[in-house]
Amino acid sequence: MIRGVRGAVTVDKNSESEILEATELLIRQMILENKINSEDVASVFISVTEELTAAFPAKAMRSIEGWTYVPVMCMREIPVEGSLRNCIRVMMHVNIDVPQQNICHIYLREAIQLRPDLKTTDSP
């Protein structure tokens, strides 16, 4: 079964180092909490809010051992008025035998407010 594993994190400013560090932190947490093996990942979509232009966040995933060949695409989030700024969102499509309600979606920093109704972690 392919399941979607969601995550989001915010950064303080539009800098390459902050975007890459935050993205790597988020992806590593998603992997850890859901016991994801890169071989089981069909694809990853990463979106950023319109003010984040300093880096492609997919570059952070490439620094994680074993994730070189996972297909990943970056895109811009819809700029809805009043929405959370400086936000990086990840959607991982994973072949996993976990029921949907047991997936651990990861929302870090200010992104916690996006989905308080989902099972999540409140790590850094």
TrEMBL record:
Q: What is its EC number?
A: 5.4.99.5
Which positions are annotated as binding prephenate?
6, 89, 107
Q: Does the keyword Protein biosynthesis apply?
A: no
Which GO molecular-function terms appear in the entry? chorismate mutase activity
Q: Which UniProt keywords apply?
A: Amino-acid biosynthesis, Aromatic amino acid biosynthesis, Isomerase
Its UniProt entry gives the catalysed reaction(s) as: chorismate = prephenate
Q: Name one GO biological process term.
A: amino acid biosynthetic process
PANTHER family per record: CHORISMATE MUTASE (PTHR21164), CHORISMATE MUTASE AROH (PTHR21164:SF0)
Protein name stated in the entry: chorismate mutase
